[in-house]
Amino acid sequence: MIVMTLSSIQKIKKQIEAQYGPLKRITIMGLGLHGGGLSAVYFFNQLGIKVVVTDLKKEKDLKESLKKVRHLKNIEFVLGQHRDIDFINTDLIIKNPAVPHNSPYLKIAAKHKIPIESDIGLFFELCRAPIIGVTGTKGKSTTTALIAHFLKLKYSDVILAGNLRRPVLDVLDKINFKTKVILELSSWQLEDMKKHQKSPHIAIITNIMPDHLNSYSNFKQYVSAKKLIFKFQKPNDYLIVNNNDSLLKQISPQAKSKVVFFNRQKVEGWKTFFYGEHNLDNLAAALEVAKLFKIPEKKIKNSLKRFKNLEGRMEVVAKIKGITFINDTTATIPEAAIAGLSSLINNKNSTAKIILIAGGADKNLDFKKFAEFIIQKAEANEIKKVILLTGTATEKIKAEISKYNSKLDFIKETNSMEKAVKQAKSVAQKGDIVLLSPGAASFGLFAHEFERGEKFNQAVFKFFS
């Protein structure tokens, strides 16, 4: 829970009302499950403003979030629906990043000249420190965490927030002019910042690959959203991009800022610190930021021994009876799952085999290369078994695999994580690796990808320990 000092409350309320006028009532559109909606509720509740929380999800789907805010006073909950009145009889609307900009309720608000804002938009308006922002299709969380880890070697006041499950409004009152602020920014958050015409002082793009094509009409539109991270930069700002990414090399000349390229070849000798060559890209990007702050490379290298992979990102959950269990639930696109598998196949000892738990919901992506990779590695006896979680992506994976007329007896399908881990147990032997790397979204069977990862962790300890 956010607990702000009285002086912070007065100062922040004054800043917000200077922009939006007196606020007696606000509508928070989307309580959600990742903490952003909760953070906004706490934030505006402490400012003494009447809050209406509206979400299309029903109470049973939001129970984990609701139990954290039910005790607060001066709050009204409208669940399982949106009402026109809540977008008319209000002074301000705070939209969840996942709410599409073409929502009919936002159109109602615009028609009645009700200002529409997001937590990230507010943050960029009110934050008093220069911002380091990281985006990308994959690797942005690890890169963000590495940057924070490196900056803490030199500075005591470092704050990490954004899309990695630490809402920006939770940290706003802790920031002064000297604070080093590092934010992970999703494409939706970048779109919410657009009207403010602000970009981070230092912007990092790890990569851009097809993703969220169930939300964007095409890949070009998704790329345009990612480009917003540097669109409003000034000549004394920095854009840091991957020198091995042809798309990034193509779009980087559009930046008005100083462009810095990172290259994984520069950190090839550091690969012992991480699972996966793809993490060398994240390390190389973070290293370029550290150089701007003149942090010695030797100090950085020594500090990597203390850096741990983030939750659900090639996270070694346990090693039980000689079997290694790795949670890579945030691999929500095929390319990320291929990268995770490749890192293990290229680094494992010669006798280890992989039992892969994959599949799930589709985001209108192409699974041909993922299917080809699975077949190739199964035929090479490097993947022992594939257990697919029921979903629309799984149907596409199976359809692609069937084109090869390969034996499909190494592939099983199930509708729960417990059953998937149980099936892994039936074939796992000492030296094997059980890897959750879905290559697909989690909705349908799980509330979100982190719940999917938590269910995997729980099942591992239930069935193997």
Describe this structure in words.
- This protein is of the alpha/beta class.
- The protein has 3 domains: 112 residues, NAD(P)-binding Rossmann-like Domain (Rossmann fold, 3-Layer(aba) Sandwich), CATH 3.40.50; 186 residues, 3-Layer(aba) Sandwich (UDP-N-acetylmuramoyl-L-alanine:D-glutamate ligase); 150 residues, Protein-Tyrosine Phosphatase, Chain A.
- A 6-stranded parallel β-sheet has the order 7-8-6-9-10-11, with helices on both faces. It has a 6-stranded mixed β-sheet with strand order 12-13-17-14-15-16, sandwiched between helices. The protein has a 5-stranded parallel β-sheet with strand order 3-2-1-4-5.
- Helix 14 links the parallel strand 15 and strand 16.
- The radius of gyration is 23 Å and the shape is globular.
Distinctive features:
six-stranded mixed beta sheet; Rossmann fold; 18% strand; six-stranded parallel beta sheet; 3 domains; alpha/beta; Protein-Tyrosine Phosphatase, Chain A; 465 residues; UDP-N-acetylmuramoyl-L-alanine:D-glutamate ligase
